[in-house]
Design brief:
- The protein is an alpha/beta fold and 217 residues long.
- It has one domain: P-loop containing nucleotide triphosphate hydrolases (Rossmann fold).
- The strands form two sheets. Strands 2-6-1-7-8 form a five-stranded parallel β-sheet. Strands 3-4-5 form a three-stranded antiparallel β-sheet, with helices on one face.
- Strand 4 and strand 5 form a beta hairpin.
- The longest helix is centred in the last third of the chain and has 21 residues.
């Protein structure tokens, strides 16, 4: 089974997907971390546009590791959440060649596994055939509050809120695989829900789908 969880920045996708995968024994693939890893790599290498990055993608070795991403032999953890990566990840994520490259890697990682993957376009572009599609969201203010409380950095709440609104606009208006809810995705507003409440809702959805599949509803 493939479970796709999409949503805007700081909507709780990764936290929910990671916990759900652990409970169900599914493989968890963090697509956002992959984009962050390539963003980090591009910034380190001075690859400032798609023309410069595209040739490097063909020889780039990238794979998921517990808690992070390994790219060309370098293991990235906290680096994925740096201020520089935060400010640039939407720019690189809009590049068609990068999205195509990572889509292929993500599909390869999902072979022969029950998978939970979170991102912006998992249910619409990466796995449009996913049996379960969830779209998580929350108000920009609540998402900024969560991110501010989760990270020990120099950014103020107001700066984080501004960045989230900026990323929402970029992600939803880009030409390639924009952020949008799949037609068959189930929408969950997490603004007033605890993590446990969100997990219970999704587990209920999974159980219903499994029962329907079992009894051919």
């Amino acid at each position: 089974m493939i479970i796709a969880i999409d949503g805007p920045a700081a909507s709780g996708k990764s936290t929910v997907a990671k916990e759900l995968a652990q409970r169900l024994g599914y493989l968890y693939i963090d697509s956002g971390a992959m984009f962050r890893a390539v963003t980090y790599y591009a910034l380190e290498q001075g690859l400032s546009n798609e023309a410069a990055l595209k040739p490097e993608l063909e020889k780039l070795h990238l794979k998921s590791i517990p808690g992070g991403i390994e790219i060309d032999g370098k293991k990235l953890y906290d680096e994925l959440r740096s201020k520089e990566v935060d400010l640039n990840v939407s720019y690189y994520s809009a590049m068609a060649s990068l999205r195509e490259c990572l889509k292929n890697i993500q599909r390869q990682e999902a072979l022969c596994h029950d998978v939970i993957m979170d991102g912006r376009d998992i249910g619409t572009a990466v796995f449009p055939q996913a049996e379960i599609k969830i779209f998580l969201s929350a108000s920009p203010e609540e998402r900024a509050r969560r991110r501010y409380s989760q990270r020990n950095n120099s950014l103020s709440y107001e700066e984080i809120l501004k960045d989230i609104k900026r990323r929402d606009k970029i992600d939803s208006t880009r030409d390639i695989a924009p952020l949008k809810q799949a037609k068959d995705a189930i929408y969950i507003d997490t603004s007033t829900l605890s993590l446990e409440e969100v997990l219970n809702k999704i587990e209920g959805i999974i159980n219903n789908v499994s029962l329907c599949s079992q009894y051919h509803c």
